[in-house]
Amino acid sequence: MAGQKKDWKFKPPTRPNGKNGKDPQPTGPFGGFQFKFSIGYILTMLIAVSLFNYLIFRTDNTLVPYSTFKEKISSGEIKRVEIDLNYYTGYPDKKNNEPSSPLPAAAKTGAVYKTVPIDDPGFTALLDETGVVYSASPREGSAVLSFLLNWVLPFGIMFLVWRSVMKRFSGGSSNVLAFGQNKATIVAEGDIKTRFGDVAGVDEAKAELVEVVDFLKNPGKYTDIGGKIPKGVLLVGPPGTGKTLLARAVAGEANVPFFKMSGADFVEMFVGVGAARVRDLFKQAREKAPCIVFIDELDALGKSRVSGVMGGNDEREQTLNQLLVEMDGFDATSGLIILAATNRPDVLDPALLRPGRFDRQVLVDRPDMTGREAILKIHARNIKMDDTVDLAKIARSTPGFVGADLANLVNEAALLAVRAGRKKVNQDDFNAAIEKVIAGLEKKTKVINPKEKQVVAYHETGHALTAALTEGADPVRKVSIIPRGFGALGYTLQIPLEDRYVVSEEELLSQIDVLLGGRAAEEIIFGSISTGAANDITRATDIARKMITEYGMSERFRHVALTKRGAGFAGQNAADPFMTREYSEDTQKYVDEEIAKTIAARYDHVLTLLQNKRGLLDKIAATLLEKEVIEEAEFVALTKDEQKEQNPADSMTTI
């Protein structure tokens, strides 16, 4: 699967406006300006308010006790008193100290007494008795400012914090209580530039979706004859094959609004939120019909509701039930199409897959060689390549790659060309990118002692020579003892000549032989074995086990599958610890013994094969130690005089 390369530019978030969802307008409380609320702003504001309060409303150090204030009045030290809401302020009798003076001279000398008012009915009588001049000063402005800073501002800040938290729960919606609003990304018609021409390698899947596009463009052609387009189309396939890209291409071709949402976006920690979001999604979709609703990763929402001993997720089940009801509730002629994608169709609830909901399942499989070449051409459109690049050869060298892998491959090749200082990408860059994707990053600086390097050289030579001498083995493209990836000290690269979908019993045995060739070479040369063959043994054992239990290739249980089933709550897709055998303990004992017997027989065969070619083994290993890498042409030249042995007695041995 492939997609068109674009120069992405930043665009402010928009929402469709108007009847047709066009005329996008900037969103957010500040129009085009996007203010990002942060808790740091709140802390800064609190510190500023606290500092302001400290400077403006700090306690006066001239305060005296109320009893002392009254004594000063009685003794005649205080001749004038100003009364306000917060303090009684007394001033001594000084020259030119008139009551009407806005700032008494005594205030300048610091001989001022202040006290906090107390409910004392005799205070006014005391002032009259002593002849003290007194006046009231309400200071209304200070009271209002104090109320705003001490009450309104703190509660306002608390409200902003609460609103920010609630917006996070509601997915950024401006309505703080909008838990039930869906989180779908709405793309207005005309904004999707992806077309079917940008998609390659899945011609059959595209053909299935052409009807959907044609219905959205020309619904009358189908309704006139009484036909109905499928309500739902489920795209099924491995990860990276381009299911989401296909959905975008359908929306782009049909030129209708596109609602995109992940299955995980429906389910939240609050009960009922998922079902409310489903209702809101379909309500908006009906208003904008004809349109396409795309639900990615449907298995996150639509898993089977059958629960075992561990129970189930009631919130997820309510959301699924609401989705089933909504899909039953809209008219197939309304122009509302539901597209969904999953790479695990086996875990979906059967009610989702019945006719009337997801009527059509479209397989988006791994591309074949022709499809891979077409995908490479799309991804390489904007890449500067020289004349040495052969995309057909690259496609043959990448069996099993999906569209995402091929896009990454083209990008890696371009980066390698830039790293080497070239202006164009050549074939060597693509070959190096293939090895990097398959085997990992090359580690030329890793230091290996000579003894280990010799062991690795003979180990990899054992793999390569066994492949060259074994009928049915894939050809060797490269042998290297340069460390790569995670712990790989060397590798032998085998690439099949063509895509294979059926493997014979003899070919499976040849795969086991090649995997065991490395350890056999070690034993022949050094008389001992190492841990370097751990991964080889694991893979060989897995092949032997599947031949007996899954493929029915054993003598005792010929054409019989010895299967396992998920126990209890684990279901069909349980991991090994939760799997239950559907055969007896005696049969399990036979399986274990037969696996060991098969591996031992194949190992003896490979050991004999390499012992007979000891000279060639030493020759290839010496070349590998000298050059560290042997390419396909050189390896073929080293082994051209050897004929692949036909070993009917050994290679046809059954297990």
Total E-strand runs: 17
- Which regions have little confidence, pLDDT < 50, spanning 5+ residues? 1-35, 94-110, 173-180, 567-571, 643-655
CATH architecture of the largest domain: Up-down Bundle
Mean pLDDT: 78
How big a fraction of the residues is strand?
5-15%
Task: Please provide a written account of the structure.
The protein is an alpha/beta fold and 655 residues long. The protein folds into 5 domains: 56 residues; 73 residues, Signal recognition particle alu RNA binding heterodimer, srp9/1 (2-Layer Sandwich), CATH 3.30.720; 185 residues, Rossmann fold; 70 residues, Helicase, Ruva Protein, domain 3 (Orthogonal Bundle); 202 residues, Methane Monooxygenase Hydroxylase, Chain G, domain 1, CATH 1.20.58. 45% of the residues lie in helices and 11% in strands. It has 22 helices and 17 strands. Strands 7-9-10-11-8-12 form a 6-stranded mixed beta sheet, with helices on both faces. Helix 9 links the parallel strand 9 and strand 10. Helix 14 crosses helix 15, helix 16 packs across helix 20 and helix 17 packs across helix 19. It is elongated, with a radius of gyration of 40 Å. The N terminus and C terminus are likely disordered.
Provide the fold topology.
Layout: E1 14-15, E2 25-26, H1 39-56, H2 66-75, E3 80-83, E4 88-91, H3 105-109, E5 113-115, H4 122-130, E6 133-136, H5 140-169, E7 185-187, H6 203-217, H7 219-223, E8 232-236, H8 243-254, E9 258-262, H9 273-287, E10 291-296, H10 314-329, E11 336-342, H11 350-353, E12 358-363, H12 369-379, H13 391-396, H14 403-419, H15 427-439, H16 450-469, E13 476-480, E14 491-494, H17 505-526, H18 534-549, E15 564-566, E16 579-581, H19 585-612, H20 614-627, E17 629-631, H21 632-638, H22 648-651
Parallel strand pairs: 3-6, 8-11, 8-12, 9-10, 10-11
Antiparallel strand pairs: 1-2, 3-4, 4-5, 7-9, 13-14, 13-17, 15-16
Helix pairs in contact: 1-5, 6-8, 9-10, 12-14, 14-15, 16-17, 16-20, 17-18, 17-19, 18-19
